Amino acid sequence: MNIGIAGCAGRMGRMLLRAVLDSAEATLIGGTEREDHAAVGSDLGVLAGAGPVGLAARGDADAVFAAADVVIDFTTPTLVAGHVRLAVAHGTALIVGTTGLRAADEAALDEGARHVPVVQAANMSIGVNLLLGLTRQVAARLDAGYDIEIVEMHHRHKVDAPSGTALALGRAAAEGRGVVLDAVSDRIRDGLTGPRRSGRIGFATLRGGDVVGEHTVIFAGEGERIELTHRATSRLIFARGAVRAALWTDGRPPGRYGMDDVLGLA
Ligand code: NAD
Question: What is the pTM of this model?
Answer without folding.
Answer: 0.87
